[in-house]
Input
Amino acid sequence: MKKILVLGVGAQGSAAAKRLDKEPNVKEIICADYDMKAVESVVASITKGRGMFVDAHDRQSIIDAAQGVDLILNGLPLECTENVLEAALAVKANYQDYAGTTELYDMWFESDLAKVPEENPPHFGDKYTTQWYYSVKAMYEIYGPKFEAIDRLALFGTGSAPGLICAATRKSMEYLDTCETIYNIVWEGVYAKRFLPFWWSPITALTDMSEMALAYENGMFISTPAFGLPMQRQYEYMDEPVTFYEHCHDEPLQYGMNAEKYFKGCKNAYFKYAGAGMDFAKSFYQTGMLSHDPVIYDGKEIVPFDFVLSFVPPAPKYKEEIQEIIDEGLVSDSGCMVIEAYGKKDGKDVLVETHVFAPGLVESFEKAGITAEMYLTGQGGYLFSKLFVNDQLDQKGVISSDMLTFEQVDTYFKYAAELDITLETKIKEL
Output
């Protein structure tokens, strides 16, 4: 029987807590956050929950809440990652995070590892992607040995993307002898009648959209232009073609670092994105309104990014909010998550095209009282937690969601099918 600390009970943490409440191998769920209204709302909706106030900027506050837990599920902003990792080490708990982090850059360059010349150093054109790259290296190479030393596992990148999409990409490698190129393609096609560009954290979304993208190309990490390199796709369930753009995301970083062992020698990896949020942000980016550099306007100093963000509504997370949006009507309730993996099988050039199918907004609300984004990310994260609580993860140290064994991936998607999250894979000769 496992005791779990869900740290951060926003859209994703609350969805995971509600699912974990139904797991027979879970005895207690500690729901902790700075926002006690959110804590009380989640605890009232489950049977194994206990609420706690935690200030995640105070490491001791996390340690106090985590006493005796088997797993810390981190649903907090990236700036809290180091504190939560250190708290997990202090209490000897397993660790799970929905994302990677950009906050361990200084740690990497203060370590002896930074003194070793890299064989293929990245060619990044901005500070953000550089911080991201070295922070992920710090996860693998600094925290990996620390979690191994306490015989525990830290698993990161476990939402929908990264997370579920990474497990699906790993699954696609079963159909290839060698892999040349991977595209992860995501379309957020849920459009409300009200102004609501983002169904998850607006600050996280706009931060990613305000930076150059990153890709793995010809065996090297490079910067690519945000909203650049357009690519059109029209899959059979789409009414019309959708244009996808480069976007700053974790997946190419993870696949590139793990190319030889987990991705059949993959040489190129890209993340392509489209949807309501990208539609909203593109013009602001092109006019410089997503810049983080202060400017003087009408005699006052402002940060354009902060100014734009101040007008963006938060993502809905409470049941009554979501019901109201649905009642107002939707323009579209669609989307896609597709993996295109190009490579060779039995000497022939092939495309392994894998589609992830999951409930849309209306169906997600009918099933669980949550949005489609909460359903896919929260449930996607919960499925990794389910692997933990059912003792399906025997690795120690640090891994990302793309580093599961094929057997673990199959178990993951067996669990996913119970939530109507399924895969459809097509093998096409080129």
User: Anything to note?
Assistant: The chain has two domains: 2-156, 164-369+420-429. The chain has a mean pLDDT of 94. Residues 127-149 form the longest helix (23 residues). DSSP finds 16 helices and 18 strands in the chain.
